[in-house]
Amino acid sequence: MDWQLSATELQRRYRDGSLTPLAVARACLARLEAVNPRINAFVARRDPDFLHEAAASTDRHMQGRPLSPLDGIPLSVKDSLYTADLPTTWGCPALRAHATGQDELSVARARTAGALIIGKTNVPEFALEGYTGNPVFGVTRNPWNLALTPGGSSGGAVASVAAGITPLAIGQDGGGSIRRPASHTGLVGLKPSLSTVPREHVLPSLLLDFEVIGPLARTVADARLLFNVMRGPANVDRSSLAAEQARTQVRPATSLRILYVERFGAAPLDPQIAASVQQAVQRLEALGHRVQQGPLPLDLDFYAEAWPQIGQAGLAQLFDRQPDWAAQASPKYLDMADKGKQLPAARLWQVLEQVKKLRRDSVNLFHDIDVIVLPSAAALPWKAEDAYPARIDGQEVGPRGHAVYTGWVNAAGLPGLAVPCEPSREGLPIGMQLVGRYGSDDTLLDLGAAYEAAHPWAQRWPTL
C-alpha cells in the first residue's frame, strides 16, 4: 500500500516512474480520512493546495527535474510552528485564528525543497506537557493503543507517522518532545544539536533556547532526509554558524566508545524498558562498539527544581506581553505563570549560569566516550487524558518522572536520537536514546542506521 512506503522508497519509485507524488498524496488523504477520527492527530488541513502541489511535483519528476530528494514527499508540521497558509494555534483557545502569514524557517526550507505539507498536528496547550490534549482540539491517541497517549508535545506528529498518514513530520523538542513521543510510538526522532536547524519566525520561547526543530520518521534514512533539508546555517540565527563549525570538527570513529546510563539516581524506570534498552545496548556491542555501563558523570541536581521554574518564568513573561492570550488560558497555566512572577530575577540569572556550566561540562564529558545511551522515557505510554503517569514501577512520581532522561540534553545543547528497541509484552513501543557531543548529529544517525540495518523495525505497524 502506498501509505506504508518510506520516504526513501518513495524517492526511488518517483525516479523509476512507478509511482507519482499525486497518487501518493491521494493515498495519504485517504489514510487520513480512515484513521484520524480515531487518533485525532490533525488540527488543520490544506487538501486543495496539497493536491495542487502534488500535481506540480509530479510534473517535475516526469521532466526529471525534482527540486530535491524531498520533492513530492508528504509531511506534517507541528502546530507550534508557523505556517504561512494555516493558523498556528499552539493548542490555545485565544489563538484559534492566529496566523502571521509566515513559515518558520525549517518549514520554508521543506516547502522550497518540494515537500508536500498535508496539514498541522496537535499539541498540548502551549506545547508544555508530555501528553497531547488541549481545550481547542481535544486529546490525541496512540495508534498502538487508542486508550493511551502518544506522548507530547509532538503527539499529533508521531501519531500521524505511526498511523501511516505521512512518512515524515516536523517536530519540536524543548525537553524531550520529539524523543519521548517517538519512543512511545515506535518511531525515529532526532533532537539536533542546538542551532543546527536555525530558527526564524517563531512563537515566543517558553524554555530559553532549549526548543529545537527536528524530524520524525519511521526509519533513520527518512529522518536524515528531512534533517538534511532543514539543517544549515542562516545569518538570521548567528548561533547556527557555530553549529556548522562544530559539525565539521566531529570525526566519527569506526568503533565507538559507548556509555550506557540505565538510571538517574533513585528515579524509577519501568522494568520492561530497562530490559529492552539493555538488550539494545548488547546489540550495539555486538556491532563492534565498546560499551561500559555506569552513572552519567554530570551533576544535574540543580535542574530538578529549576526545570519547572523555567517554564513558569516563560509563561509569566508571555502573559505579560499577551494578556489576551492569558485571558483564555487554562487555569493550570495561569497558576504556572503566577509562580513564575514570584521568582526573583536572580533565579533566572542562576539558571543561565548553570546552563553555561552544563554546556562547558558536556565538552569534558565526551573526552573519553563518543556516545551515551539511555532510555528515551522512563514509562510506557499511559492513559491518553492524563498529563503524566502517577506511578512508575510502583513508585509515585511527579510531572517530570517519565521525562528524566531527556531535558538535560536540551539544556546542554547536545544532539539526541531516539530509535526503537524491542516492544513491551503488550506490544507497546519502547525506545532508546543516543546522545553525542555537540555537532555529532551525523555520528548518531550513522549509529542508528547501523543498528536499524541489523535489527529493523519499520515492518511493525499498529493494527488500527
Helix/strand layout:
Elements: H1 7-16, H2 21-39, E1 42-45, H3 47-62, E2 74-78, H4 105-112, E3 116-121, E4 133-134, E5 138-139, H5 155-162, E6 168-173, H6 179-185, E7 188-191, E8 212-217, H7 220-230, H8 239-249, E9 257-260, H9 271-286, E10 290-293, H10 301-321, H11 323-327, H12 331-341, H13 345-365, E11 371-375, E12 391-392, E13 395-396, H14 407-412, E14 416-420, E15 431-436, H15 441-454
Parallel strand pairs: 2-3, 2-6, 9-10, 9-11
Antiparallel strand pairs: 1-3, 4-5, 6-8, 7-8, 7-14, 11-15, 12-13, 14-15
Task: Write up what this structure looks like.
The chain is an alpha/beta fold and 464 residues long. It has a single domain, classed as Amidase signature (AS) domain (Amidase signature (AS) enzymes, Alpha-Beta Complex), CATH 3.90.1300.10. It has 15 helices and 15 strands. The strands form three sheets. Strands 1-3-2-6-8-7-14-15-11-9-10 form an eleven-stranded mixed beta sheet, with helices on both faces. A two-stranded antiparallel ribbon has the order 4-5. The two termini are 15 Å apart.
